[in-house]
Structure formats: structure tokens, C-alpha cells
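Something for you to look into today, if you have time. Could you write out one complete protein record for me, on any chain you like? The space below this message is yours for that.
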Amino acid sequence: MSNKVEILFFARLKNKNKKNLAPIYARIIANSQRVEFSTGLSIDPKHWNGNTAKVVAGNANAQLINTYISTKKIEFKRIYNDLLLEQKEITAEIMKNRLLGIQETEASRTFLELMDFHISIFKSKIGTDTAISTYRKYMVTKKRLEEFIPYHYKKKDINLLDLKLEFIASFDLYLKTVCKNNHNTVVKHCKNVKAIINHGIQYEWLETNPFIKYKTPYKEGDKGILTKEELATLMAKEFKIPRLAVVRDLFVFQCYTGLAYTDMKELTQADIQIGIDGNRWIIKRRTKTNQRSPIPLLPQAIEILEKYNWLEKLGNTPILPVMTNQKMNAYLVEIVELCGISKKITTHVGRRTFATTITLSNGVPIESVSAMLGHTNLKTTQIYAKVVDTKICQDMQQLKEKLSGGNLKKVVNGDS
């Protein structure tokens, strides 16, 4: 037997029980991998010979424990030879499973097999409680994993029981160095991997998540938004090219409603309802999260709806002339250039502009903004809707006025 594959027995002296007995563990080493498991036996430390890995004579359980150890060593050699004859992969986990009598079907499930199972369930829920965009994101993660596993492990797939924290750490590094992904893209892929493993635990494919200690938070980037002045410039600009005028209107509609591209594209007459104040609201569920999103319509948004004759669009007919997201983003590049705005914007910037420039900067509480955006929690809104510098400037200016007016004592004491 190769010296790279062996089984060792040892007493874990630091884990003595109330009777001062130490548990006896087995350690399997195979091709630089190792696993440990409890034998279920224990021994008084003074009766254990660490050099021979046996119980010394004179202990009442010496014959029982020593026979168990000898039997397992013989069985271990037989399992190793069987795997060689079967030309199967030899890993510490597989050796352990055979030694403990764990069914081959349980031990042979693979990571990509679990991922396919996870994705198939997602696919079946599209249109109910899963967005097709989420399904597509998992498909991209799968593609990256199908490239990573052969690259790093020199094989097409990996057994679920062989997964360790090293797997996701190496995947993280692979995405950054080989795929040249930015930090937040890497985090998204790794979060998908953790979700897949949790799904496997739910369906009892494995017992614990080996990636539970992997924690890499998103980095808060400088989210692109338009200032009040930039938005006014864009709205006032006259475009001779019809397609640019249409895209400008659609983008402005996003700035005054906070709708994501997909939700704007799917907007129908049925989504425009009379709210509790007697005025028109957009009330619809977000495609991405299925979260209810109630948005009172501002005059600027109503003006755009009327410009495109929304009342004439009946049934499931979209009420706005929304083209593909790719085309809109391409035309937005032309639009900002013609407006003299030196920013790169996409349709998503319209949603961010609503969250910051239109609402938060004008004193709308973050709870209300979160509800209109259709977020499931405030934490998302806090990252998404970064308060713009002009709002900070206004707040500090008010503080300066209070301080210069002799109200320092009141401010310090918390009086208004």
C-alpha cells in the first residue's frame, strides 16, 4: 500500500469525559487529504500507548479495543486494494465511508449533480416565486464552476463529501485571477455556491455546510446617480432623433418612479390604480422578488404616461414603448454625451436616481423609499440608495445656521 494512504488511531486526550476517559479517534490520510472520525471507544489515558496506538495490557477493555483497531486496519487495506482493482478514485472521504459502511449512493453524490438539482427546482418556479434573471445568474455560476473544477482539481466534478473551505476560497481566487471578475461579482458567485450547499442540506444530501466560515461582504461602490441639475438638463434637452427622445422619456420615467427596467417594460394599464389618497399609483409586484411595490405617481411620471397614450393600451399590452435593455443602455450613452453629462449611465441609474436625488434627498423616509422600491428589507435600501452629497451639504448647512445663531447649547442638549 502506498505510504500516501494510511489509517492511524489516537486518543484525543484534551476531550476527556466526566469519567476521565479520552475518546479514541481514527485518522485516514489519502493523497494529501485527511479525515477523522470517532470510533465510539474511550480509554483511560494512562492505559494508552501513543507509540503503538494500542491499549496496554492490564486494562479491562484492552483486548476489545486492540482487536477493533487491528480489524479496522486489515479492513482498511482490503478497501484500498478493492478501490485499486475497481479503478475508482481514492480519497480519504471515500475510504472512511466504506470503512463505516456508508452506502455508496450517499457517498457518490457530486457537487455539480447537486447544482443541477438546485437549478432544476429554480427553473420550475420561474413565473411563480422565482425570476428568470435569478435562474440565469445561477446558470452563469454553474458555467464558472464547470471551468474551475477541472482547472483546480484536474477532474470534471467533486464529491460532496470532499468539499472543504478550501474549495470556495480557491474558487474566489480563480474568479479574481483567471476570470478577472471584480470583488462584488466574485461575492455573488460565492453566495450562490453557499446557497446551493444549503439547498443540499435541506434535502439531506449532506449534513453541514463546509463553507459556513466563508464571509466576504460586498464592497459599497460609488453607485451612479444623476444630480438634480443633471436630471433637469436631460429633461430639457430637445432631441432631433426620435429613438433618443423616447429613451430619454423612459429613463426619466424610471427616475420618477424607481421602476427597474423589467418592471417598466411589463407595466400595463392594470398596474395603474387609484391609491388611498384618491390619486393614481403604480401598484405591482416586482418581477425580481415578487414583492409588492406601491408607488404614488409624481406629475413628471404622469406626463410621460399621457404622452404615450397609456389609456389606449388595453389588457396586457405594455403601456410604454420599451425596447431591449441593451439598446436602451447604448442610446443612453449617446444621450448623456449630447447633454454634456460626463457620467456612464444605464437604465439602473434611473432607479438609483429615484432612490437618492428624488426621494431621500428630499426628506422621504427610507422606510417609504424601501417600500416603493419593492425591497424586502431596509438593509438593501441602505446600500442601494446612498444619500447624495447635496443632502449632506444641506443638513450641515442647517447645523451651521443653528450654531451661528447662538443655539449651540440647544443643539448639544438635543433641543430643537
